[in-house]
Fold these 2 entries.
Entry 1:
Amino acid sequence: MPNLTDLSTIRALCEKYDFALSKGFGQNFIVNPGVCPRLAESAGVTADCGVLEIGPGIGVLTKELALRAKKVVSIEVDDRLPPILAETLEGLDNVKIVLQDVLKVDLKQLIADEFAGMRVVVCANLPYYITSPILMALLEQKLPIENITVLVQKEAAERITAAPGTRQSGAISCAVAYYATPKTLFHVQPGSFYPAPKVISSVIRLDVRPNPAVQVADEKGYFALVRAAFGQRRKTAANSISSGLQLPKAQVNAALEAAGFDIRVRPEALTLQDFAAIQAALANQPSGVV
Ligand code: SAM
């Protein structure tokens, strides 16, 4: 099996298959030999486990996952990679490559078809340009997965793992905290990748909750409210909710006050419970809009 963290091996593969790494697909391959084993261990991958990987690249993480898991399914969008993966993963018969855009895959069906009877985790070095859409797709579909352990840019990690109600929180932190318990595990230097990105990366693990962090009557309306509140970053929650949900300002102010908040409150000061209280207050108003 080729050493996929060795630069000359990578260059030889690229030459053999006439493959140039694509910036557009966010291709920064891991070349630090310590990172993939640690990532796989951090995801809790064991012999009874099914692993969903997103973006195998040339298979450096895929191999570490396959050595530990019962089965690995890796979804890759770049149609130039399967022939390379056939060579680099030769002999690992518990790996299946699915050539598709992860955002277009019916993941619930895929998990049911591929991982029956297994505990399932997601483990990946995510393409940075669609980090949030991928995490939201994984969480919103309420998939039967235990955790999502992924390598992302450090700045994204900080936003994703920020606790709602704290300065760095945003719509993504609220959505993540609603569905999961996030944790930052370790940081990875730019030199651990080929080519080296400009920024530090972080491994985060999202442990999926058995039940959402707050009970809300209307989940869709709840997330519409959260997204609206953070829609205009430097504005008050009231202004952003009013323009985002097209509600009269007086009505939003009244709901905020009824829920016990100052009408000048900033969205980043609001917790998941606070948003639920505001949603309930808006729904209890005469026009009952949210
Ligand atoms: N796992 C490899 C590693 O760690 O070296 C590659 C990681 S690289 C950061 C991201 C991978 O995701 C690339 O292989 C890229 O082609 C793939 N990718 C990008 N967009 C994708 C999408 N929409 N669906 C599936 N894979 C995608």
Entry 2:
Amino acid sequence: MRDIPHYVNGERVSGTSGRFGDVYNPATGEVQAKLHMASAAEVTDAVAKAAEAQPAWGATNPQKRARVMMEFVRLLNRDMDKLAEVLSSEHGKTIPDAKGDLQRGLEVVEYCIAAPQMLKGEFTDSAGPGIDMYSMRQPLGVVASIMPFNFPAMMPLWHVGPALACGNAVVLKPSERDPTVPIMLAELFVEAGLPAGCFQVVNGDKEAVDALLDDEIIQGVSFVGSTPIAQYIYSRACANGKRAQCFGGAKNHMIVMPDADMDQAADALVGAGYGAAGERCMAVSVAVPVGEETADRLIDKLVPRIEKLRVAPYTAGDDVDMGPVVTREAKERILGLIQSGVDQGAELVVDNRDFKLQGYEDGFFVGPHLFDKVTPDMDIYKTEIFGPVLSTVRAGSYEEALGLAMDHEYGNGTAIFTRDGDTARDFASRVNIGMVGINVPIPVPLAYHTFGGWKKSVFGDLNQHGPDSFKFYTRTKTVTARWPSGLKEGGEFHFKQMD
Ligand code: NAD
């Protein structure tokens, strides 16, 4: 059986804790690898080694760091097929989806090639007589990144790219579910010229995470995962005096106005609701048609589209629409929530509770489900299901639809489908949600903008990628300099405005 170790100082290193986890192939349900689970002592060691490597990397000029990013981009494109195959085998998503996962991560590394521009700081000439003032952005030192399972390439690259470009060393803790691709990414960075030790990968669970949160060397923590864990990590990291940005769960609503192009809206909902088996933080899990007639038309358009979806393993070809969910526990949890929806009175319009795939009976497949007449008090509405389940909540008016999205505890993404510019503009301006789509179902901002939700979808105040990431991974230092030729007689004893 394959072994998945840690990656420390440029080498795959076996764990010493004696603890192992199972990594499955979700399509077959078989254990395909043993994962080495780090003890606190192993984490401390990896962090200390990162701290030894970081000063030289931080002192490397930003142009040279950017060249490492450029070379990494070339290498990732070279290995795209190999990486996608490994990613799909551990996560379960289709190969085109796995390539999208890699591509959206790659775009952030491409953005980081702008490091010399992003880090050049600010300068005020003659802030006072003979006085210049300048601000520079310096790396934090060693930072930690703790990852979810659903984007095993994109999420690490969103953090590691900017962190490294800013001159930090990173200790990454991948998800226990799909940890191989992050190690391969670290290897590619070293092949691209990154000094060994600047990108460490420690595998493990809560023990490894807590060791990172309590390590005095770690200066910044980036986390992505479920909301309760995001909140926990944010509190503990902050209590330990670290900078933290923690991104949590979602329940993204898509409002469909009566004037929307109903075919476009239905296509969008199917892609955004069932793509990657609903395991995306920007998945649309709630459709909100406005008016009974809109709802009926929408459901009529959705049902045949959903029934046509091809659910199969990633090995079955590029026309597979969705693969399995990530674990047996995830499958059972999703089926339990579907049952709760039925018990609480929602109408299960597309019912695939008996779904079985011949030859893959032990795989973690869940067929697509569609609920109608869901109400806000139901568990399927309140909970992030993170599976191929779309709930329809019928709203009587635009204000009611807007209120639903606004009152939900999560605020990651949302969308509105309408032909009316006035309504779209009002929605974008008033809704209390971080990322908004107008006739776009999954409004994931590109690398040069920033990504982040509001409300319980985030803890911390700087977003992922874009300009925010360069702020998160650096500290500002401001220098006020006066040279002798600018000095008047005597010293300065007062705190006064410069003249
Ligand atoms: P998760 O919270 O179960 O795990 C995330 C990480 O936290 C893993 O590395 C895990 O080892 C660690 N962890 C789990 N329990 C812990 C504990 N008690 N103490 C310390 N560490 C712990 O999340 P997941 O199931 O891997 O990912 C899915 C979630 O991630 C969904 O809620 C999804 O919405 C969210 N997500 C959010 C974004 C975003 O940007 N907002 C992006 C992707 C995924």
